[in-house]
């Protein structure tokens, strides 16, 4: 604190304290010769007269009275304690100094409220209120460590301030259970400290449903347990089990989220459903039950190799037939080509014989025949 000086005999320092804290008010004396020293509160009531208590307020204690310094200690500081404290030195000339006490009010934990119930796909509006602070608290919103932009307003009420901030944002079902933080800070708090309130989002949404089976493959005589995993806000409080267009087997035991089917038989086959609903919607899940006969399963497994062998043999026969057909086709085509060339040769021989007989110059030639 910067000292305030109006004379050489008395010196004081201004003091700032948080409400409920401890303040020390000091009067420094110069050239003190044993004269009377009086300390008064802002109402000009005498607290101490030459080291002797004058006001019965146990919150004020005389910590030191020496030729160089008078020091009093104030516990549990209050707003009404704020003001100027007089240090008066009575000599031939009266000298006094005023030490100003300033009381700050730290914010309490903010009060966070929601304006109306949040529903999936809509917007939610939250308000954060600090009813008392001095100076006016600064409010900030955080979500997933990221600051949200809010709108603040403040109102002075005597020596303190009432501060409020609101924030709006869109929500989805994944936001249900998310944490929103409102933080308040002012100079009355230690450096780096703040007051925070966490608000858990309550977002309502339509239900979802999935069926989980206790085992993947079921055989005759097994016991199967189906569980309907339901999610929704508000959570559906009633779950209904059905089997297609048929009624549930008489042995079936439906208890809330579970359906137990003991001693399975093939007659239990079918499509089983679980249904759940709340005021925001309806959900339905399906499970197709097929009960296997162990004997049929073994027979099906043993017949698989024969089927594979039969398929391979059929493929080989088909390939052989294709090869034979190709060979025959190639043979027929080559024979046709030979016959064509042979016929062409005969035609050429006939033409040559006719030319020989007729002669190339058109004259008649004598023909001889031998008998």
Automatic annotation (TrEMBL):
It is found in: Membrane. Residues 3-102, 107-202, 207-278 form the Ig-like domain. Its main location: membrane. GO terms for biological process: homophilic cell adhesion via plasma membrane adhesion molecules; regulation of Rac protein signal transduction; regulation of wound healing. GO terms for cellular component: cell-cell contact zone; membrane. Gene3D superfamilies: Immunoglobulins. The keyword Nucleotide-binding does not apply. Keywords: Cell adhesion, Disulfide bond, Glycoprotein, Immunoglobulin domain, Membrane, Phosphoprotein, Repeat, Signal, Transmembrane, Transmembrane helix. Pfam families: C2-set_2 (PF08205), Ig_3 (PF13927), V-set (PF07686). The chain crosses the membrane at residues 306-330. It comes from Chrysochloris asiatica. Involved in the cell-cell adhesion. Has calcium- and magnesium-independent cell-cell adhesion activity. May have tumor-suppressor activity. Belongs to the nectin family. InterPro entries: CD80_C2-set, Ig-like_dom, Ig-like_dom_sf, Ig-like_fold, Ig_sub, Ig_sub2, Ig_V-set, Neurexin-like. This is Cell adhesion molecule 4.
């Amino acid at each position: 604190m910067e000292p305030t000086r109006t004379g050489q005999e008395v010196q004081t320092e201004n003091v700032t304290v948080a409400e409920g804290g401890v303040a020390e008010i000091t009067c420094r004396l110069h050239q003190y010769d044993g004269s009377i020293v009086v300390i008064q509160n802002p109402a000009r009531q005498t607290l101490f007269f030459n080291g002797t208590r004058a006001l019965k307020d146990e919150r004020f204690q005389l910590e030191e009275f020496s030729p160089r310094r008078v020091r009093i200690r104030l516990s549990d500081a209050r707003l009404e304690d704020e003001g100027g404290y007089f240090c008066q030195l009575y000599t031939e000339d009266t000298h006094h100094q005023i030490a100003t006490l300033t009381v700050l009010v730290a914010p309490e934990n903010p009060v966070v409220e929601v304006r109306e119930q949040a529903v999936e796909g809509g917007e939610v509006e939250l308000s954060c209120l600090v009813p008392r602070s001095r100076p006016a608290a600064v409010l900030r919103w955080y979500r997933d460590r990221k600051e949200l932009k809010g709108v603040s307003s403040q109102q002075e009420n005597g020596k303190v301030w009432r501060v409020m901030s609101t924030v709006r944002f869109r929500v989805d079902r994944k936001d249900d259970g998310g944490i929103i933080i409102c933080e308040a800070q002012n100079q009355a708090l230690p450096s780096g400290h703040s007051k925070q309130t966490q608000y858990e989002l309550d977002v309502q949404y339509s239900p979802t449903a999935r069926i989980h089976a206790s085992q993947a493959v079921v055989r005759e005589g097994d016991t199967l347990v189906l569980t309907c995993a339901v999610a929704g806000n508000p959570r559906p409080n009633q779950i209904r089990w059905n089997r297609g267009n048929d009624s549930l087997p008489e042995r079936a035991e439906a208890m809330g989220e579970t359906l137990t089917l003991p001693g399975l038989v093939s007659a239990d086959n079918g499509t089983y459903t679980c249904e759940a609903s709340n005021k925001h919607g309806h959900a339905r899940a399906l499970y197709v039950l097929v009960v296997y006969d162990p004997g049929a399963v073994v027979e099906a497994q043993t017949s698989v190799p024969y089927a594979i062998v039969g398929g391979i043999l059929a493929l080989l026969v088909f390939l052989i037939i294709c090869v034979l057909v190709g060979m025959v086709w190639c043979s027929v085509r080559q024979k046709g080509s030979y016959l064509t060339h042979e016929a062409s040769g005969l035609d050429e021989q006939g033409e040559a014989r006719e030319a020989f007989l007729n002669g190339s110059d058109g004259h008649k030639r004598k023909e001889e025949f031998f008998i």
